[in-house]
Amino acid sequence: QGPARIARLEVENFKSYAGRQTIGPFKGFCAIVGPNGSGKSNVMDAISFVLGVRSAQLRSGALSDLVHSLDGSQPEASRAAVRLVLALGGGRELQLSRECTVGGDSTYRLDGRAVSWEAYSERLRGLGIHTKARNFLVFQGDVESLAQKSPRDLTRLLEQVSGSEELREEYQRLEAAKKDADEKTSFAFSKKRGIAAERRQKREQKEEAERFLAKRQQLAELRGELHLSRLFFRAVDMEASRRSQEESAEKLGELERTVKEKQKLVGQDKAEQVKTQRELAKLNKKVHQHRKGLDELTPAAVQKREEISRAVKRIRNAEGKLTQLLDANSTQQREISGLEADLAQVTEEQQAFEAEIAAGESSGQVHLGGPQVEEYNRLKEEASASTVRLKHEKDGLVRHQEAERESLVNVEEAVKEISRRLQQLTSQRSEATGQKAKLEEALRECSGEHAAKKEALDAVVSRNGQEASKREALRKRLDELEDKLREAKADRTDEERDARMVQTVESLKRHFPGVHGRLIQLCRLSSSKYELALTVILGRNMDAVVCDDSSVAKQCINYLRENRLPPMTFIPLASVKAKRLDERLRSLGGSCVLAYDAVRFQDQYEAAVRFAVGNTLVCDSVEEARRVAFGGHERHKVVVTDGTMFSRSGNITGGASRSMDARSGRWSAARYQKMKDERVRLQGQMDALVPLHQALSDEQEAQRQVEKMAQRLRLLEVDLRSTEERLTKLGSETDAIKAERTRVLPELTAGRKRIQDLTRKIGEVEGSINAATDTIFAAFSAQVGVANIREYEEHQLRHQREAAQKRMEFATRLARIRNQIEYERKRDTEAPIVKLERSLQQDRDRLEGLKAEEAETKRQTGAEQKALQELQKQAQALKAQAEDLEKRVRDGKSAATSEAAEVAKLKRVRASQGAALQQLRVACEDILQAAANDMVELPTQTGEAMEEGDDPACLEVAGKTYAFAQVGEDARGARTQSARAKVEEALQGRIDGLQADLDTEAPNLKAMEQYERVLEQERAQQAEVEGARAAAEDVTSEFNEVRTQRIGRFQQCFEHIAGRIDGIYKELTGGGEDGTDFGGTAYLSLESPDEPFDGGIKYSVMPPTKRFREMADLSGGEKTVAALALVFAIHSFRPSPFFVLDEIDAALDNTNVHRVARYLSAHSPEGGDNSFQSLVISLKDIFYDKAQALIGVCRDPDLKCSQTLTFDLAAVQEGPALGSAEPMVA
How many CB atoms lie within 10 A of CB 680? Predict the structure, then answer.
């Protein structure tokens, strides 16, 4: 079918092209020419647009910018469209269309049918058009850009052209996966080697641990034999002690029964005494309650009296105020009655006046005849007609004067009312001012009394607070002393034991001269702060008995055994093996001292003390003790003054212990008595304080007084505020009345002046009227015998005016009296009276209730006092009875003391026996604890065992029965202490030897478990190695496949371009017109042939007659030619059917322009193989005169859009002359 060629281009409202225009037809080599700004590049943009190039590469920010507009801002149409018609051979055509709207939507069409971009681009690729690689476009500046590309940029360009770029992401992903798989495989192999080494190590440790455990099992068996022998020895001694104790118990039981009978009698008396004391306590409690009730009733009675006093005062004040209100009401009624009488009198006077007026009208006056009346009326009408204006003016002035008179009367009445009200307000203010002065004086007095009462209350509260604090401190101190005394009482057993031990030691001293006494009695401390520390250090040696030699010690032991006394420890001075003192320890500094130096003793006891304390150190703080014990090269035994012990083995022992505190207290025997004396002294101070109930009563009474004064003060303050508010209100009202008077008085003066002015004006108008009337009535006046007609009219009218004036006076007086009556009736003086009478009645009712409550309070007080006296008498009787019972109990106790002493003696003997048995039992528990510490389990039995001779077969301790069947013959035959010691020493020697061997070994006892775990890990790791190797092989295979494809595509492209570049460059740089000159040389080389993507592509050229140079060293024209050679070589790899170039000759001289034009002409569709259609935008005639057709672009000034002309140069070149060819206009 042949390659596709552009036949024509149809644009509609695209950029500078308005409406629908057809550009073409296009030839094999077409040149697009026209002046700058005419729209040449828009033709290239239209082809790029229809072939799917993005708007950003079309010199536009968005698709909407491609729609034609005149001024570049407002589009002239709603859409832009471009249709490219391709000729496919065989006469067939393919229409490629694309349109966009101002909204940014884009549509693709194939032969008029809308398709997706994927289908569209697939059709373009089938034609050899690759939009992404732009293998059909060379925009303006692309040549210069290509000439400046780096080797790496050229590599990326060839990746796009070759299509290997499509595999880049997959290649990079697989490369990272391959690297990760290789690392995992290497790590798995490394981990496997480590596990194998660990397996060999654990096998050796396992064998060592097995040998160690065998020795430890043997050591446990020897320790079990030693502990069982020791337990057997203690069991034998316990059996002997138990028999002795049973004999003493029988004697003690008989004697106790005798003492019990006597104690029963004493107990009965004591119970009666306790009962009496309880009843006495109850009576005292009742007495206290009644006293408290009296204390509570007394303030209540005082409060009732105060409330009654205040109620009486309120009633008196209310009665006085009621009297004032009644007087004011009577005065008001009298004023109303007087005003009503005045009103009736004025009404009678008015009626009499009206009767008089009626009588006067019937009396004789000048009378006119009939004709005269007619003449008078006619003349009157004439005069009225001539003076009608003046009469109207007069009537207006008269009406105005009457209105002013009425207003003046009202103002005069208002002034009188203001003056009367101002006088009342002045009187009320004077009364309120006096009342305020009295209230202020009372308030000052009450404030002084309140302050005094409050100071008294503060003094009582302060005293009670101080005594409460002192009472609390004393109670706290007494509680502490009581706790200590209770502890001392709880340690009574230890005191009794100590007392028995003292008696035993004194007995030994009497029988054996070589006995010196107990170690605690032979020593004293340099400071009391060392008591607890030395108690811990000495331990059981505190009660050890110091004697001269071992023979004396043996005699003492025999004595103790014979007398069934508790065992004791003896320190023989002659043979004791005491450690030598380390003098270096005395120079440690700080608070650290040798325990030996903290003890004071006689020189003869130095060996015993050195044996008991050794080189133990004492420090004041735990931190210092830890540093001294473990901080140096050598460990030391250190004890802190608080009892914490740091042993050389690393153990730390500490904490609070009541028994240890009690034992340390034995260093100071007088402490107990001192605490008792202190308790007596503190109790005396407590008794000297004011009783709590009395303090509370005083405080409550003072508080009530303060509250009473505060309430009175509040009432006075309320009255004072009310009076001040009333004064303020009266002052405001007075000021308002004065302001009203000030405002009204000028109105009164102005009203009078206005009436005078109106009277004057009325007189002037009347004069004018009279003059006109006299002229008209002159003849008539002479006829009737009067000087003028006014004489007749005034005689008649004077009586009318006088009557009208009199009526006005009556109306004014009546209005004033009615206003006064209305004002007085509006003043409601009865409502305050009713309100005050109701309040007065409530206060009287409350007064009666308060008096009844006061009477009830007095009755209750009398009853309480009577009951209190009766209770006090009963308490005296019970107190005498209690004293008698106390004497009987004391005598009974004294009588039973002698017999109880014998019982106590037997109890001490039995207690000593029990203590010995308890010590043996404790020794057994210590042996069992030691066995537990050594993790040795001694043999036990569940059934009953038969005794063999005198030896016990078993021993029960802490709920378990231990069997002695496994005790050796050596231990069973050891009856003396020395024989027992030899047995223990033999076993201990074997134990020490075996322990020494074990101490030199430090096996890993968990090696067996660890060895098995390592074997399992090794098997798991082997599986992991196999999995990692398989995964790495899979990833490597997949990676190599993708790498081969990518490199294959790239190499295919590179080899094709490298093979074509030299020939194209030679053709572009070849000879002149005759072609005899030699061209240049160009070649491409890979920086990294094995991994072409990791390096770049070097493009080297040798222009004609010059040496090889890099692109950067070429001139501008040489760079352009070299870049064009590369463009044409790249285009030849996957050639598109057409090539659109925009001003590629801009940087070329005429010679090079000629060569490029010749190259394009040679490769036009008519040029042979490797031909392609070329569309070139150029401004140089030596270039476009080689074209087969010209597309001329110009600017239409009228339509302000681009227009195109197509000129077929082939027809011109074949014709006779250039001018004879007709242009093809589109």
Answer: 9
Q: Which is higher by pLDDT, 785 or 528?
A: 528
- pLDDT for the residue numbered 46: 86
CB atoms inside a 10 Å sphere around CB 726: 16
Buried b (16+ CB within 10 A) or exposed e, 650-679: eeeeeeeeeeebbbbbbbeeeeeeeeeebb
Q: Is the pTM of this model over 0.90?
A: no
Look up tokens 């009499």; give the residue: 352
878's tokens? 């019970």
Q: What is the 3-state secondary structure (H, E, C) of 629-640?
A: HHCCCCCCCEEE
Q: Which of 506, 605, 518 lies closest to 559 in space, CA to CA?
A: 506
Peptide bond into 25 cis (omega under 30): yes
Assign 3-class secondary structure to 362-375. Answer: CCCCCCCCHHHHHH
Nearest to 1152 by CA among 1094, 1061, 1225, 1067: 1067
pLDDT at residue 893 in the model: 67
Q: Between 805 and 604, whose confidence is greater?
A: 604
Distance CA 965, CA 340 (A): 142
- DSSP letter at 547 equals E
Sign of the dihedral defined by the CA atoms of residues 894, 896, 899, 905, in that order: negative
Amino acid at 152: R
Angle subtended at Cα 84 by Cα 79 and Cα 87, rounded to the nearest 5 degrees: 160
- 111, 619, 641 from 623: Cα distances, Å: 99, 9, 12
With 60 as the cut, is the pLDDT of residue 1219 above it?
no
Tokens of 209: 């641990």
Nearest alpha carbon to residue 156 among 133, 180, 125, 186: 133
Contact 80/66 with Cβ under 8 angstroms?
yes
Neighbours of 26 (CB within 10 A): 23
Return the bridge partners of 84, or none.
9, 96
As given in the structure block, the two tokens for residue 342 are: 């005045």
Average pLDDT over all residues of the chain = 79
- Quote the DSSP letter at residue 127: T
Residue 742 near residue 748 (C-beta atoms within 8 A): no
- Cα 899 to Cα 499, 895, 913: the distances in Å are 21, 8, 22
**What is the predicted pLDDT for the residue at 493?**
44
Q: Scan for tokens 């859009």, then name that residue.
A: 1201
Tokens matching residue 922:
């404790």
The Cα–Cα gap between 58 and 54 comes to 7
Q: Where does the pLDDT of residue 662 fall: very low under 50, low under 70, confident under 90, or very high at 90 and above?
A: low
β-pair partners for 97 = 83, 109
* DSSP assigned state of 536: H
* Contact (CB, 8 A) for 350 and 803: no
> Which pair of tokens denotes residue 52?
């799917």
Question: Confidence band (pLDDT; 50, 70, 90) for 1216?
Answer: very low
In the predicted structure, residue 892 carries a pLDDT above the cut 90: no
Strands (E) in 17-128, as ranges, are 17-23, 29-33, 79-89, 92-101, 106-110, 113-115
CB 1140 within 8 A of CB 1133: no
Residues 6+ apart with CB under 8 A from 125: none
Token pair 């490597």 is found at 1036
The string of pLDDT tens digits covering residues 259-273 is: 777 777 777 777 887
pLDDT band for 1031, please (50, 70, 90 cuts). confident
Collapse the DSSP code of 621 into the 3-class scheme (helix H, G, I; strand E, B; otherwise coil) and give the result: coil
**Torsion angle defined by CA atoms of residues 389, 392, 394 and 399, in that order, rounded to the nearest 10 degrees:** -170
Calpha distance 324→332 (Å, rounded): 12
Query: Are residues 675 and 681 in contact, defined by beta-carbon separation less than 8 angstroms?
Result: no
In this predicted structure, the answer to whether residue 491 has a pLDDT above a threshold of 60 is no
What sign does the dihedral 219-221-225-228 (CA atoms) show?
positive
d(C-alpha 1105, C-alpha 1124), whole Å: 20
Q: What is the pLDDT of residue 945?
A: 46
Which pair of structure tokens corresponds to residue 162? 């070759």
Half-sphere exposure of 794 (CA within 13 A, CB side): 8
